[in-house]
Each structure stands twice: as structure tokens, then as C-alpha cells.
Design goal:
Elements lengths: L1 E5 L2 H18 L4 E4 L6 H12 L9 E4 L1 E3 L10 H10 L9 E2 L8 H14 L5 E4 L21 E4 L2 H7 L12 E4 L2 H4 L4 E6 L5 H9 L17 E6 L9 H9 L8
Parallel strand pairs: 1-10, 2-3, 2-6, 3-5, 6-9, 9-10
Antiparallel strand pairs: 4-8, 7-8
Keywords: Allosteric enzyme, Carbohydrate metabolism, Hydrolase
Enzyme class: hydrolase
InterPro entries: Glc/Gal-6P_isomerase (IPR006148), Glucosamine6P_isomerase (IPR004547), Glucosamine6P_isomerase_CS (IPR018321), NagB/RpiA_transferase-like (IPR037171)
């Protein structure tokens, strides 16, 4: 696992956006897996700016969802389909046809999960998957004690995660209890995993994921199993890393992120 410590969230966003741009320059129809929440917004803003400046052509890019709430209609502003269309697809100048996501409104949610796993495989797999990390170490909505071999499936959110997400709704009672999420096994099939974490509140989770033991209690620690995983953190989120100075020195010797 490669760890890159950046000064702030804007620098992290620019770094990851340039990695996405480099991927699109070499593979114009790359499938980019995106995450929701406030943390990845600087990535999408920086990538959109590169498209507007004609630094990269994203017209053939494909976008896929990491997870989705169960029962929220497509038009609900906080359904992750709506969020991804609003924050990623539209700013990049793409159409809905470029977008893939699980159907959280399906009558048979289990079948919808299987269908999404198949769709990702039939699309050739995810080229770069952007991830966030929860304060409890979850990735996607794979809560602690999720199987490290899990596939796309329905999950029940913990009270902590519902509280963390309540800021996007009109109170905790409006946050759904269930979600569809790519499983850890599904996530690990992406060719490049990039986890972005910012803020002191994520420091403990980052330290456990990067330097702790591989454990189902910390789902993000599964990135240790991946042959091409990059963790980008700001100084606050890096506060718990024992090897922070080593990571800084390593990145200083390769500041343009080439070869990742």
C-alpha cells in the first residue's frame, strides 16, 4: 500500500484528479468508480476543471457507483444516484448513459445486487475506484465484521454511520436503515484502489487500516491485500501514522505520482 500525505484536501483532490486524468488519456473509456460524501468533492471539482480547460477529454469516460440507499427513489436529492449525477456526471459533461449503479428501488433487492456485480464484470471491471473511509474503518457500506470476500449485497447501517450521514438529511429519522454496497471482494477487483481521507476524525481509522492488522473489524484494512492501492491523506488524517515521516520521504522522492 502506498501512502501519500498532502497538506490539505485541495492538494489531495488535485493529486487524485490528475491520476484519473492520466488514466483517461491512456484509456479514454475507463470505468471510474466514485464515492459520495463531502471528502471526494475536491477530486471531482479538480477533474471537472481539467475537462473545462481541455487538459483531458472525459467524453468517453464511464462512471460507476460504490453504493446506494435502499428505498430512496431516483429523484430523491440524497439518493446516491442523484448525488453522483449532480457532482460527477453532469460537471464532466457526460450523459446518464455513461453511468452505472445498483437499483435501490428494486422489488427484489438481492437480485439487483447480483445484477450489479454482473454488470461491473461485463463492463470489463473498474479501472480506478475512489474510496472514503468511515470513522469505524468501513469502506463503501461494508461495516465492521463484513466478510473480506463479500460481494455486492444489502447491508444494515450501524447507528454510528446513520448519525454520520444525518447531516445530509432533515434529521436522523430520515436516514435509511439499509443500503446496497459493493462488497469488499467486489471492491478488491478494481485495478487501482485510491482511498482519500481528510480531517483528524479519520486519523484513528486510517492508522488501523494502513498499519494495523488485517481485520474484518476494520474493513478498510483489506486494501493491504490489493496489489495497487494508494491512500491519500492530509496531515490531520495522518496524525496517527507511526510511519508518517517515512511516507513523506517516499512521496517527496516521487512527487508527480508517476508509475502508480
Amino acid at each position: 500500500m502506498e501512502v501519500v500525505i498532502v497538506p490539505d484536501s485541495a492538494a489531495g483532490g488535485e493529486l487524485i484528479a490528475e491520476a484519473m486524468a492520466e488514466l483517461l488519456r491512456s484509456k479514454p473509456d475507463a470505468l471510474l468508480g466514485v464515492a459520495t460524501g463531502s471528502t471526494p468533492l475536491p477530486v471531482y471539482e479538480a477533474l471537472s476543471a481539467k475537462v473545462r480547460a481541455s487538459e483531458v477529454d472525459a467524453s468517453r469516460a464511464r462512471i460507476c457507483q460504490l453504493d446506494e440507499y435502499v428505498s430512496l427513489p431516483y429523484g430523491h436529492p440524497e439518493s446516491y444516484r442523484s448525488v453522483v449525477l449532480r457532482e460527477v456526471v453532469e460537471p464532466l459533461g457526460l450523459t446518464d448513459a455513461s453511468f452505472m449503479g445498483p437499483d435501490g428501488t428494486a422489488d427484489d433487492v438481492g437480485a439487483a445486487c447480483l445484477a450489479y456485480d454482473r454488470a461491473l464484470a461485463e463492463a470489463g471491471g473498474v479501472d480506478l475506484q475512489l474510496l472514503g473511509i468511515g470513522t469505524d474503518g468501513h469502506i463503501g457500506f461494508n461495516e465492521p465484521c463484513s466478510s473480506l470476500a463479500s460481494r455486492t449485497r444489502i447491508k444494515t447501517l450501524t447507528q454510528q454511520t446513520r448519525q454520520d450521514n444525518a447531516r445530509f438529511f432533515d434529521g436522523l429519522d430520515e436516514v435509511p436503515h439499509h443500503v446496497i454496497t459493493q462488497g469488499i471482494g467486489t471492491i478488491l477487483e478494481a485495478r487501482h484502489l485510491v482511498l482519500l481521507a481528510t480531517g483528524e476524525v479519520k486519523a484513528d481509522a486510517v492508522a488501523l487500516a494502513v498499519e494495523g492488522p488485517l481485520s474484518a473489524l476494520v474493513p478498510a484494512s483489506a486494501l493491504q491485500l490489493h496489489p495497487h492501492a494508494t491512500v491519500v491523506v492530509d496531515e490531520a488524517a495522518a496524525a496517527g501514522l507511526k510511519l508518517a515521516d517515512y511516507f513523506r520521504a517516499t512521496y517527496a522522492a516521487k512527487p508527480n505520482w508517476q508509475g502508480l
